[in-house]
Specification:
285 residues; alpha/beta; Metallo-beta-lactamase, Chain A; Arc Repressor Mutant, subunit A; 2 domains; five-stranded mixed beta sheet; MBL fold metallo-hydrolase; Sec-metab_biosynth-thioest; LACTB2_WH; WH-like_DNA-bd_sf
């Protein structure tokens, strides 16, 4: 499943090294990609799960160099838990996404929130951390989570896209914290930008990012149209709708698919196009 071996530093460009964490799953693909930015001083983006072997690997790569910041795109438990032990080992501050306390987690989804995430500094849209020869500027991209940030490396035209844009699949958008309207707006925001390459939280680097983002927008609009056509034929419960939309889907991914369909339905309800009666959804108007 892994696209390259875990624990091996891969030099993607002079300022960027990638390390794959050993946490493959149906929701993380080969695992979480941790990125180390810089030469003489460093930033570590999304250090990943609290896995001792992965943390030891990161410390070997850091090799005693000063770490200016441990940067978090969002605090799902496959992205942020290693921030605390890594901060303790390096003295670096944890910066990035604002902590969110989400209730009502849905068992079976690997992407549960890291309840222990405690940043030293929250970065607002446009704020940055800097080191010798590098800058990481926060770009608010809510939708996958309400607190999701991407980070631009203007020195090379790269963007670290977290789970907003991934290199292997579209993101799960799971209410109540995930919001399909915000997700679509964040994709539209990326279309107005010109970064040359995306480094995602999962999967390989995206070398034609504008093409992929346009495709992701088209895919979500296609799903929305599919929902409206199904509801036009009569009311349906969420489970039946998902089964008709995702024929042949890996059963392990059905809970995630249901959450994304529900996110579409909430968005349609907010726009006055669908509503819920009991356990069934219907078209309005």
């Amino acid at each position: 499943m892994a696209e390259h071996p875990t624990g091996i530093p891969i030099q993607l460009e002079p300022l960027v090294v990638r390390v794959l964490a050993p946490n493959p799953s149906p929701y993380t693909f080969g695992g979480t990609q941790t990125y180390i930015v810089g030469h003489d001083d460093l930033a570590v983006i999304d250090p990943g799960p609290d896995d001792p072997a992965h943390i030891d690997t990161l410390l070997r790569i850091i090799a005693g160099r000063p770490v200016r910041a441990i940067v978090i795109t969002h605090h799902h438990r496959d992205h942020s838990p290693a921030s605390s032990p890594l901060a303790a080992a390096t003295g670096a501050p944890i910066v990035g996404a604002v902590p969110q306390h989400v209730t009502g987690d849905h068992p079976g989804l690997d992407a549960a929130f890291d309840a222990d995430y405690a940043p030293d500094r929250v970065l607002a849209d446009g704020e940055a951390v800097q080191g010798d020869g590098w800058t990481l500027r926060a770009l608010a991209t809510p939708g996958h989570t309400s607190n999701h940030l991407a980070f631009v490396l203007p020195e090379t035209g790269a963007l670290f896209s977290g789970d907003h844009v991934m290199g292997w699949a579209t993101s799960v958008v799971s209410p109540p914290d995930g919001d399909m309207g915000q997700y679509m707006a964040s994709l539209e925001r990326l279309l107005g930008r010109d970064e040359r390459i995306y480094y995602p939280g999962h999967g390989e680097a995206v070398e034609q990012p504008q093409r992929l983002v346009r495709g992701m927008l088209g895919h979500r609009k296609q799903r929305e149209g599919q929902i409206l056509r199904l509801l036009a034929a009569g009311p349906l419960p969420l489970a039946d709708m998902t089964a008709r939309m995702y024929v042949g889907l890996d059963p392990r991914l059905i809970p995630a698919a249901q959450r994304s369909v529900l996110a579409h339905l909430y968005d349609l309800r907010g726009r006055g196009l669908a509503d819920e009666e009991g356990e069934q959804w219907r078209i309005t108007g």
